[in-house]
Design brief:
Blueprint lengths: L1 H61 L1 H12 L13 H5 L11 E4 L15 E4 L11 H21 L15 H34 L2 H18 L1
Antiparallel strand pairs: 1-2
Length: 229
């Protein structure tokens, strides 16, 4: 019994190990397939890039004749020559763009007619210009000319005469005096108002009530007070 029981436990253990190994192998297979899928996607992306590059090249080669025609008729572009390269930045700054013309360069002139319905014609005028010789001044000459320009500017500034400045001073009264004047004006106004008010009240009394009316009112008030008593 004990031997059979032990064999049964070993069998269960072996079965569990087999199941775990099976799941592990499945996960490994899934990871391998995923890597293969990523590799295939990378190949697809690289193939798409190659396809786009080839399509661009085909389109360019197909339109090469048209591009050459445009370059010859309108753009007039040409490859740079050895004479167009300079030694330093100073030489590049000293170049005159208008005087540098290569042989066989064509310039287009645009003529706009006055009429609205007429077409615009662009005649191409061939220009034959001799090769321009660029003479570069040494750097020392530029350094010497700078102090001379400074001296000339200083002399011009010293010759200019300074105009006299007229200062106008305005005399103003002190603040204390202004305050005293304001106070005096206020007191005068208040005194005038105080004098006018009693006179106005008296005039109103005279105009509204006469002596007889006041006497009648006083007598009526006295009689009423007596009756109340």
């Amino acid at each position: 019994m004990t031997a059979a029981y032990r064999m049964k436990g070993v069998g269960w253990f072996g079965g569990c190990v087999a199941v775990v190994l099976g799941f592990y192998l499945v996960s490994l297979q899934v990871a391998a397939e995923r890597k293969k899928l990523e590799a295939v996607n990378g190949q697809i992306r690289s193939a798409q890039r190659d396809i786009r590059a080839l399509e661009t090249e085909f389109d360019t080669r197909g339109n090469l004749a048209q591009l050459e025609r445009w370059n010859g008729d309108t753009l007039a572009l040409s490859a740079p020559t050895a004479g167009q390269f300079v030694v330093s930045e100073a030489a590049l700054a000293a170049l005159d763009v208008n005087s540098l013309r290569a042989d066989g360069v064509q310039t287009a002139a645009l003529l706009v007619p006055s009429g609205a319905g007429s077409a615009v014609t662009v005649p191409i005028v061939p220009v034959t210009a001799a090769p321009a010789v660029v003479k570069l001044a040494p750097v020392q000459m530029a350094q010497v000319s700078a102090p001379r320009a400074m001296n000339v500017a200083i002399q011009a500034a010293s010759k200019t005469a300074l105009k006299p400045v007229v200062i106008r001073a305005s005399v103003s009264t002190p603040r204390s005096a202004e305050a005293a004047l304001v106070r005096a004006a206020k007191t005068e106004r208040l005194a005038a108002v105080a004098k006018v008010r009693p006179q106005a009240v008296a005039m109103l009394d005279r105009k509204l009530l006469s002596d007889t009316t006041l006497g009648d009112i006083m007598s009526g008030a006295r009689s009423e007070s007596r009756k109340r008593r």
